[in-house]
Write the structure tokens for this entry.
Amino acid sequence: MTDKGANKRHFERARQVVPGGMQVTFRNSQGHVPHYIARAKGSRLWDMDGNEYIDYILGGGPNILGHGNTAMREALKHQIDELYGRETTALEARAAEKISHHVPCADWVRFACSGAEAIAYAWRIARAHTGRNMIVRFAGHYHGNLDFEYGGVVDDTAYPVPREDRQGEGNLLSRMFCTSGRAKHAYRDSFMIEWNDLDALRSLLQKHASEIAAVCMEPVNIASYGCYPQPDYLPGVRKLCDEFKVLLIFDEIVTGFRMGLGGAQAHFGVIPDITAFGKALGGGIPVSAFCGKRAIMDTLIDGKAITVGSYNGHPLSMTAVVTTIEELEKNEAAAFRNIDRLGSRLAEGLRDLFKRHGLPIILQGFPGAWKLCWSPEGVILNQADGLRQGSGMEKAFTFGALLEQRQVLAWGAFMIGAAHTDVDIDLTLARADDACGDM
């Protein structure tokens, strides 16, 4: 067991001035004491009590290069010496060129600070381009914390009902998303259906295509159960969007620059009209991007649609984008080969452990990001399927808490980065074996 005395004392201090003592509501839970990290290097974190952890959270995904990457530190130090205030610099074009070079749909690129902003801008551009209002989104997909990025009209009902509200007590997303304070009208701006179901999308488009600006999805649903698209699903969605003249938006906040330099769209060979990036794009520095085809993004040129923000294109975030992509490009993208190898090895080892201990736990996702799920059937296709199987996220978090006691950090998911090593995998599997005994 780890000593957390200093962490607890600081938590009590933080609770006097910070609601709940934490900056992110999702991480609050009864009796939970957060890790206040004092330093980090490579794949390891050390908290205020000196406890060392193998880090598979990676800041929620952004720290794809690991902690304390030399190239990133030197680039940021140099930029701070030159200019650290917000001004227009040549870095904006350099960063955009890097993205455009690798991402198939990225004819034009603009920047923001968070994933939620990038998605909001992508939806605004889609509405401006089509002249329609509604967005199609999918149960269990997370697109940010703004009011209209949650929920949606379900089953053609006359009233806006967030899908999560209708799933019962076993759905952690219901407790997260169905909270007070959001504008009621926001739910009326989108339809919500189940993912990995072409018939559901076809039926909705047949009824409402004239109202729909875009279909928006995570190409791999890491936010919920790590659901992977069925072989015909993404091509089928692309075909339906073309048939009904509706735009396709990929939320690549997680998959972008983590599934590969070209993102999920390059991996699957299905090209959306607009894409949003974040997290790994900046290697740990706050930044996001929204990009798309020239004929769609041109709504931004004449002011038909606007995207503004004091820190959009900040020189430090642009430095981070350029440096992160350059590091990932090195040696013909060797970092991704390492991530794929280690991520696959970790997943295979964990699956063997779960089977040996008789636990119906599965991992879903891709080598750079695995989600832990409870599934007696061995696969979960979408939100409804997961809830039908009783795969509440609480069980995955329980296993994560057991790993935390053994100094492995994973929030019900494993993010693999360029700094992870075979030693990390060996230690993780040994500690996970012990945790399985308690599970």
Observations:
- The domain at 11-68+333-438 is CATH 3.90.1150.10 (Aspartate Aminotransferase, domain 1).
- The chain has two domains: 11-68+333-438, 70-325.
